[in-house]
Amino acid sequence: MAVASGVRVAASRAGAVVAADAPLIQLRGVTKTYGTGATQFQALKGVDLDIAAGDFVAVMGPSGSGKSTTMNILGCLDVPSGGNFLFRGHHVETLDRDQRAMLRRRYLGFVFQGFNLLSRTTALENVELPLLYRGEDKRTRRDLGMAALEKVGLDKWWDHTPAELSGGQQQRVAIARAIVTSPDVLLADEPTGNLDSERSVEIMELLTGLNRDSNITVLMVTHEPDMAAFARTVIHFKDGLVDRIEAQHRPGVVPEMGVN
Amino acid sequence: MFGTTLILAIRSIRRHVLRSFLTTLGIIIGVGAVVTMVTLGKATTAAVQQSISSLGTNILQVRPGQGFGRGGGGPRPPDFKPEDVEAIADQIAGVTAVAPQAQTTATAIYEGANWSTTVTGTTLAYFTVQPWPLASGRTWTPAEQAAGKAVCIIGNTVRQNLFRSTDAVGKRFRIGAISCDVIGVLTTRGQGGFGDQDDVVLMPIKAVQRRFTGSRDIRLMLVGVDQAYSTSAVQSSLTDLLRERRNITGGKDDDFNIFDTKQISDTLTSTTTMLTRIVAAVAAISLVVGGIGIMNIMLVSVTERTREIGIRLAIGAVAREVLMQFLVEAVVLSCLGGIIGLILAQAIIAALVPLMQVPWTFDPQINIIAFAISAVIGVVFGYFPARRAAALNPIDALRHE
């Protein structure tokens, strides 16, 4: 993992060390084609995108607009069919499966709509999981795991299994798992999709806090304008392309319809 | 890396205790069956050998007639004479001693107790052919033997039934029509392949011939063979000598038979060994079936846990780590099954040994082999499901419902 460790040295924490003109993430003419022949389907038709370190980005768009495909590529779960994907100025599209796994392990955190916690496993063991793959020792795992649970306000629930937690609590455990490795980027795929509005606001406030206080870049897919309102940047996808990008100056304040 | 995988595998097994137990059941039964069968088979072989060797090793038993259950028609072949005994002892190389035997059954009476037993008349050569130490007392002297005195050496069963707890040596008891002095008591031999060996009264052969059988005929000779000589070579020179002495010429069949205990022992041993192998092979098949059971459950488990695998891949597990986790899970399961199977086998063996009347044995070799096979089964049958898990695409795996 010469590439990833090189990146690590260049960028201590935050994005401050990186040259001001080099965004954290750059997509250049990214295309993605599924299938072959008659069933061929082009999900992305040449996406250009810059995401600055420390930003809070909401990705919106109708189904089939390419936003999920883009998120999968940004999350290094999928590879583009064409174009370039640069993470901290390094090409990712040329990395193999294991190298992308190492990139995810070191720099990325994931939060899913369905929480995706391991069942019959305590909150702490769930949170510790990424640390296990990093090869951290038992004590470090416990300390970092408890610290992450404390950040999401669930340290007292460390020995509860997902079945014993509410949906909001499960999502907070999932967030703790995503941030326990101190990632640069947190990718959230409709994190509030399965929650009621009150819990949704709690989760959004938690993400906003992590973005602000821990300087984690947040990329979030959402259908709900109320949730997108918490972001600083909103990217709209349409027909496999970026439709428009809007900057919100007062994130967290739900805009009135028609007023922007 | 391996420590991590082991932790993950053990956590996963602990989360599904019942499923894990059912998965390993095949291995438990397979290992248990193999170890039980092989151990009991070896114990049976040992028991057979023991009961054969209780007849004495390197002994040829010579009887008139053409072997067991044959020679029904025609005149009965003559018994042996004392001269035959001397001739064999003198003329055949490799013979240590020849003990003639004359046998009869009689009822022994002492005070209130009576006991029906076998009276065996023999010579001092009997103790040379098959060493049988005395627990107390003495053997008869050559003078007593020559005179055919009514002196008895009794087996422990006779002692117990006739004399209870008292010391039998020096006591006089009635046997058949005569009175007999007990001069010695034999050590206990226990149950042999042909009944209770301790239910015996030994007397000088002349006493038995004179007082019981009424002839000089000898129904059985025990021929001791020197360790340095092969029993089959001695057997063939013995056959030649007896044919000559009994005037059997040309193509006529022998009218006597020679029973080689060593040969019988070898035959029985090879038979029981073969039976052990067959039963062990059947048990080994159940072990393989157990392995297939593990593969089956692991494959189901991979499908059932697709989402979990997706989560692991998304948070940065590389394919190799997922493969290792499932492989280690399978190996840990099959090894656990192996250990439980070994314990189970010991319990079954402990329960069956008294019922089968075989000696309890612990054979480290078969235990190690059975355990090693269970571990190998884990690797072999765990690999395919593990590879399938590792090959999953994280996006598809995460989407899996």
UniProtKB/TrEMBL annotation, chain B:
Residue ranges of every copy of the ABC3 transporter permease C-terminal domain listed in the record = 281-394
Q: What lineage is on file?
A: Bacteria, Pseudomonadati, Pseudomonadota, Alphaproteobacteria, Sphingomonadales
Q: TM segments?
A: 21-41, 278-302, 323-353, 365-384
A GO cellular component annotated for this chain's UniProt record is:
plasma membrane
Is Transport tagged as a keyword?
A: no
What GO molecular function terms would the record report? transmembrane transporter activity
> Does this UniProt record's set of keywords contain Transmembrane helix?
yes
Mode of membrane association = Multi-pass membrane protein
User: Domain MacB-like periplasmic core: where?
Assistant: 20-240
Q: What is this protein called?
A: Multidrug ABC transporter substrate-binding protein
Query: Where is the protein situated, by its record's location annotation?
Result: Cell membrane
Main subcellular location: membrane
Protein family (similarity comment): Belongs to the ABC-4 integral membrane protein family.
Keyword terms of this UniProt record: Cell membrane, Membrane, Transmembrane, Transmembrane helix
